[in-house]
Amino acid sequence: MRTPGKQKLRDALYTLYERRVRRSLSPDRIPRHIGVIIDGNRRWARSAGNPVSHGHEAGANKISEFLDWCDDVGVKVVTVWMLSTDNLSRPADELEPLLRIIEQTVEELTSIGRWRIHPVGALDLLPGATAETLKAAETATHGVDGMLVNVAVGYGGRRELADAVRSLLLEEAAKGISIEELAERVDVEHIARHLYTKGQPDPDLVIRTSGEQRLGGFLLWQSALSEFYFCEALWPDFRHVDFLRAIRSYAQRERRFGT
């Protein structure tokens, strides 16, 4: 058991280290777009003997804090994966409270008034109340001149690609373009213009918490040239210094962009 004196010293050393890492960051080496896979909420709750909803609530509370950190170092776009298409098959007694937590979180992010909210996902798969909350957030923050926050709810990378191709086919068919003509001239840019994140820079850095080292379907198209940072901390325990380390790790890499 830590004594108050030892804890005080530990906190002071942590603060000094955090400042040191922050000062080491170069403004011209900050990622423009960060994607974050928030993972570990359920394990965090279970490790303390609490219902999984406690973990989801703790994880939701971390999101605005994380966005503050991104804003502070000059990130322009953040994509937060809050709920995958696979998560929609979870038992109702877990999924329904989680959807309410997501709705409340999106409303809170909207009320802050500093960030432009953009829903990313298959809204047609979501309950009406959740989809309407996401749409309302986008409308309410449309004119905000601040960091763009993609809220990925009901998101799956494969579903996004299927939706992009479907949208492209419908658009070209409306112009009278045949399948044969489209097949001859379609390229990656045609598809990119129909992604959920169209018009945005691809993520420079993707962070995943909880020690898992996989994408799980997150931004499959957009992350082709991204840098990845996997952190052992469960999402509710993810600290400012963990974030700064991720940025430092990114800044120290030599990006080759596939060459």
TrEMBL record:
The question of whether rRNA-binding is a record keyword is answered with no
Requisite cofactors:
Mg(2+)
State the active site. 39, 87
Q: How does it assemble?
A: Homodimer.
Q: Which UniProt keywords apply?
A: Magnesium, Metal-binding, Transferase
The record's top EC class is transferase
Q: Which PANTHER family match?
A: DEHYDRODOLICHYL DIPHOSPHATE SYNTHASE COMPLEX SUBUNIT DHDDS, DEHYDRODOLICHYL DIPHOSPHATE SYNTHASE FAMILY MEMBER
Q: Kindly provide the name given to this protein in its UniProt entry.
A: Isoprenyl transferase
The UniProt entry's sequence similarity note says: Belongs to the UPP synthase family. Z-FPP synthase subfamily.
Q: How the cofactor binds, per note? A: Binds 2 magnesium ions per subunit.
Q: According to its UniProt entry, what is the function of this protein?
A: Catalyzes the condensation of isopentenyl diphosphate (IPP) with allylic pyrophosphates generating different type of terpenoids.
Reported EC number(s) for this entry are 2.5.1.-
Query: InterPro entries recorded for this chain?
Result: UPP_synth-like, UPP_synth-like_sf
GO terms assigned for molecular function: ditrans,polycis-polyprenyl diphosphate synthase [(2E,6E)-farnesyl diphosphate specific] activity; magnesium ion binding; Z-farnesyl diphosphate synthase activity
Residues that coordinate or bind substrate: 40-44, 56, 84-86, 90, 208
Biological process (GO) annotations held by this record are: polyprenol biosynthetic process
In this chain, Mg(2+) is annotated as bound at: 39, 227
